[in-house]
Amino acid sequence: MKQSQMLIPTLKENPADAEIKSHQLLVRAGYIRQIASGVYSFLPLGRRVLRKVEDIVREEMDKAGAHELMMSALQPAELWKESGRWNTYGSELMRLHDRHEREFALGATHEEVITSLVRDSIKSYKRLPLMVYQIQNKFRDEKRPRFGLLRGREFLMKDAYSFNESFESLDESYDQMFRAYSNVFSRCGLDFRAVIADSGQMGGKDTHEFMVLSEVGEDVIAYSDTSDYAANIEMAPVVMTYESSDETEKELEKTATPDQRTMQEVADYLGHGLAEGLKSIMFKVDEQFVMVVTRGDHEVNDIKLKNFYDADIVELASEEDTRQLLGTGFGSLGPVNVPEDVEVVADYAVEKLANVTCGANEEGYHYVNVNPGRDFKVKAYTDLRFIEEGDPSPDGQGNIKFARGIEVGHVFKLGTFYAENMNATYLDDQGKSQTMVMGSYGIGVSRTLAAIVEQYHDERGITWPSHIAPYQVHVLSLNPKKEEQKELADELYEQLQSTGIEVLYDDRKERAGVKFADSDLFGIPLRITVGKRAGEGIVEVKERQSGKQDELEQTAVIDFVRQWFSKE
Amino acid sequence: MKQSQMLIPTLKENPADAEIKSHQLLVRAGYIRQIASGVYSFLPLGRRVLRKVEDIVREEMDKAGAHELMMSALQPAELWKESGRWNTYGSELMRLHDRHEREFALGATHEEVITSLVRDSIKSYKRLPLMVYQIQNKFRDEKRPRFGLLRGREFLMKDAYSFNESFESLDESYDQMFRAYSNVFSRCGLDFRAVIADSGQMGGKDTHEFMVLSEVGEDVIAYSDTSDYAANIEMAPVVMTYESSDETEKELEKTATPDQRTMQEVADYLGHGLAEGLKSIMFKVDEQFVMVVTRGDHEVNDIKLKNFYDADIVELASEEDTRQLLGTGFGSLGPVNVPEDVEVVADYAVEKLANVTCGANEEGYHYVNVNPGRDFKVKAYTDLRFIEEGDPSPDGQGNIKFARGIEVGHVFKLGTFYAENMNATYLDDQGKSQTMVMGSYGIGVSRTLAAIVEQYHDERGITWPSHIAPYQVHVLSLNPKKEEQKELADELYEQLQSTGIEVLYDDRKERAGVKFADSDLFGIPLRITVGKRAGEGIVEVKERQSGKQDELEQTAVIDFVRQWFSKE
């Protein structure tokens, strides 16, 4: 394509609101433009890259045995009421009325629509398992859209759904999708981890998130420095075993700690480390008040608490409730002498401590020489804390490290949540009605594009992996006013184009500096510059990623380009 | 693909609400399913066909020099207020609020968004002309969605826009698009006409609609039986010249016509033909009352009236206004002795009449022996009637015939309407600011799919053109319980698949009758049936369109299929 005829508005400066590299570079290089907060248009360069990612996704979905379909963005409210999500999805779901005052949702996801389609179409076990997918814009009214394509309100997504006869069959579909997802992100050139994630309230069992490692990611991953174990930090169990203290138990004492509120202040005041104090936090677990006790240097993981109680809702108790129950506020809590209607649970680490400090449930006082078991009773010792860097990996191999990740994919065993609510059943081989078992599988296609840029850029612009770039070759004529340069560049462009190589040709009458800067921004893998030595039939070839450059005879260019890409 | 694993829910009966063939067959054959009134999902077979049409559109757009981009469906109201269409577009535009109560439109079309993008990106004549397009779901809240994909509320559209320096340059872009559209619809195998259309209120100049000829079309086309002239019926000028009557003028007489209200009743009562009466209709043209007079057998074309007056609004006068002006109601109107504040205009045909009848502006009375010119004055004789079958074609070649058409494409010279309202300017080669000149070009992609079915079906199902069909070959194993049939069919499927031929394989354990009926419904061009002679390695090949069938050795199948498609 000739650049002079294309809509590629490059910018010299970063947009004011663009905090991260992918946002800055995609806007500056003319790939995307914001239409409204969190809503973007993909300009021709952006559309091409998006299509390359789409094509990879499509190929891997087809290979996994999923069939493409296309559902509507307009979804009748009735379907969301059937599943129960019309009320629970909240204000992220964009809603509207048609001219007859019928309520619709704009597709944020398509579980309801596909479940209704399949329940009306499939009656027999003979048609199961079924896997379908679509690639389509989704709408979610994010409270705080930001980071360009990473957190938008309209974005391109691949969503897939499996319908299975049984949980065993779901496991198979899930594994197929898991492999397909690994292939997709590998082919996109991404450094990623498949991470054990929280299945939330959907009643699902397994779920993994595919996380691209990146400093700008909003999630923290705990991964093994040795194996491929990785989990969202809140999901990683602590498998560490603790040594019992060999200290002799001393006598329990109450001591004044005037004006010392935080764990750190109390520890400093009493002259010991954080790990020699107990952290006590009051929760309300469904209707039960629970005091959770951990070692002072540990953080309570409320998802573990929720799972321990198999609870629906876990929240911090209010300070008012706490005062009523214990006669004191948050700064002075401790497990000694708590009333019977408060359950005490403690992290494993607590069990092995001796002669530690805790709040005395009295403003300005702490106990010292507290010994668990002797001085307070617990309902249970269990795993209640967040994993930390250096902890042993839960799979027994190596130690935990932390990294930040951008979630680009999510595979999820939905189980029977939707099928039950929406009555999706089939007849088994005995003619008996059974509930379908479902899985759902998403890839953020436009977000993946941004994640690629986060991993592929340098100080001058984007450095696309070769099979993701919008074009393979960028031809520049340095000074098209010089006849010999223009002729040679025109000729090269035609030759490359006619051999099926994807070429962008900068034929603009702009200064060489502008052309080089734009070219670096775009990030096309190979640049061929037609300049001063055009008269001799010699051009310059430069690799965008490595910066390596060389001079070439014009006649050798096609072979060089072909070979270069066949090696990639 | 194996049919047993695909979502292709066929139906034996037509859906109750499906009035036309494309709607009936696409639902019955499992290509589409309704989600809400006018809102459809494309199931896997439908998605494949849609993609084939998309690909043809994409190729022709690229060839025409347009670049693909993708704008958002969410469009801020501010842009529509700038263009003025927020108020004028009416209730077809779907509107919603985000969580911060900001107003948005759901993209019904993208003139506003693209104009805003281009005005912010392009400053110089050097970057013009520019042509861009996208293929994307559009939203229009039709008052009465019907006919399946023909009139939906969410539908797939290709929309393209050109930005030009001048009207001459716009003409070139328009011609390029016109040719591309002709190519698209030819490649889709459609019998269509490019039809001169009404440019409406957009201030545009030329506009053509691409109409697929079909009895179920909602528009009537007037076309020449000899040349390629075609126009929407209201746009075709009448170029007929009329002979003067050679009758001697007789004396004007008023005669009683009690209880005769319609033209036909009066003509019968007075014993003459419709063509010997004058039809007189009162209009309000902007603020002026106008009596339009045509020959009794002709129909008034109000678009011609509007154009004659260069008016903004043309509407029928109310009966109340008419009584006030002429002292009588609609049944007795005529041009003799009308008051001065009513202008009389007449169709060319009226001028040459003699001794005809007209209403006497008096309940129950008509004039006979009326002679135009002698008995009433007209402001002008002009072309005011609808063209009729048999009239000479406006291009001077042949005579007019009528046909009904489905609008599948529209090319439109927008001119400066949007660029002026939204301030899209560029600097010309003298450094002077100029307003951009725009064109807009639409193809209803999903509607095109339905139009193809309207032209390609028989009593048993769809009969796709070979390059539009979802698959090239449909392999049926008649009785897969018989090992030899299953083995041969499996083998054929693998062979065809591995040579890159698109195969659907009916591997289901269903009765032969069910399989044949489904196969006919689907409309895949070639069917290969593995049946009784499987043991001898012999299969049956059948062409869907012609019904021609033949037996073939298994070993000859691949060559046969390849040759068949290379000839298509």
Automatic annotation (TrEMBL), chains A, B:
PROSITE patterns from the UniProt entry: AA_TRNA_LIGASE_II
Annotated GO biological process: prolyl-tRNA aminoacylation
Recorded catalytic activity of this chain's protein: tRNA(Pro) + L-proline + ATP = L-prolyl-tRNA(Pro) + AMP + diphosphate
Residue ranges occupied by any Aminoacyl-transfer RNA synthetases class-II family profile domain in the UniProt entry: 33-465
Protein location: Cytoplasm
GO molecular function: aminoacyl-tRNA deacylase activity; ATP binding; catalytic activity, acting on a protein; proline-tRNA ligase activity; transferase activity
Pfam families: HGTP_anticodon (PF03129), tRNA-synt_2b (PF00587), tRNA_edit (PF04073)
CC annotations in GO: cytosol
UniProt enzyme class: ligase
Enzyme Commission number, as recorded: 6.1.1.15
Keywords, comma-separated and alphabetical: Aminoacyl-tRNA synthetase, ATP-binding, Cytoplasm, Ligase, Nucleotide-binding, Protein biosynthesis
NCBIfam families: PRK09194.1 (NF006625), proS_fam_II (TIGR00409)
Domain note: Consists of three domains: the N-terminal catalytic domain, the editing domain and the C-terminal anticodon-binding domain.
Annotated family: Belongs to the class-II aminoacyl-tRNA synthetase family. ProS type 1 subfamily.
Subunit structure: Homodimer.
Role this protein plays: Catalyzes the attachment of proline to tRNA(Pro) in a two-step reaction: proline is first activated by ATP to form Pro-AMP and then transferred to the acceptor end of tRNA(Pro). As ProRS can inadvertently accommodate and process non-cognate amino acids such as alanine and cysteine, to avoid such errors it has two additional distinct editing activities against alanine. One activity is designated as 'pretransfer' editing and involves the tRNA(Pro)-independent hydrolysis of activated Ala-AMP.
Protein name: Proline--tRNA ligase
Lineage: Bacteria, Bacillati, Bacillota, Bacilli, Bacillales
Gene (UniProt): proS1
